[in-house]
């Protein structure tokens, strides 16, 4: 037993480094990041809170719980994280799983999104990324109120922009540009010209710039059909994730909710 405790501490501190405790996160959680007790994802009126009593609860604008993992009383020092297989888990003591979204998928990069209608969705794996240099600065993930996620089926037409902190994604005429708003420097662009362009995310994950309905630029990455997202990330890159592998309204999940919470240990290094 004595050998396992330092390992646990080491693992937990590794997790802490990825998302510093006691910050409020915004509305996207990437795999590797954690929400600790007291931390929230917030989007407009909706708030997903990792409560100190171990329950993960989604609240609406009247502070009424509309969804929860029913893990209250599960212990202390609980957290929620998104694993590299797209599974969202509520855990305590580093590895002990109290609740799982049961959305095990291929290993990759995933994103959990709380949308402005209060729906939770897990998207992945990552299909495409813009190739501009990543901003490597330590992120302080305080609440973000701007729009920075494009869902499949949606278009981004000028003058609308996606904005995350100091980054923006929008058109300058027909040229789609990721800009650093501080220096006004273009970090990445499609170099497309003309007028009347828009960006569209298809339901196979393809991102394209269209001019009068005709493709003038494409990410050329397609997957199976489903719900995808394009996110302007904290590091200044645009990523496409999908299709959606889980939402709080999926059938698997409602089965989990009516049954007692899933209990299990899913790591070789179990405590
Ligand atoms: C999470 O939201 C609650 C309710 O609005 C708030 O009291 C709390 O301070 C938030 N947590 C953080 C870390 O900001
Ligand atoms: C999922 O969230 C939506 C939006 O808040 C809510 O209306 C719905 O009831 C939730 N689904 C489940 C299964 O709880
Ligand atoms: C933009 O960057 C500056 C300098 O790095 C920082 O002080 C400021 O808070 C950032 N703005 C936003 C909205 O994050």
TrEMBL record:
Region forming the signal peptide: 1-25
Enzyme nomenclature, EC number: 2.7.11.1
GO biological process, one term: response to other organism
Protein localization: Membrane
Name of protein: non-specific serine/threonine protein kinase
Keywords, alphabetical: Receptor, Signal
All copies of domain Bulb-type lectin, residue ranges: 26-135, 141-253
GO molecular function annotation: protein serine/threonine kinase activity
Catalytic activity entry: L-seryl-[protein] + ATP = O-phospho-L-seryl-[protein] + ADP + H(+); L-threonyl-[protein] + ATP = O-phospho-L-threonyl-[protein] + ADP + H(+)
Membrane disposition: Single-pass type I membrane protein
Top-level taxon in the UniProt lineage: Eukaryota
The organism's taxonomic lineage, starting at the top: Eukaryota, Viridiplantae, Streptophyta, Embryophyta, Tracheophyta
Record bears the keyword Signal: yes
GO cellular component, one term: membrane
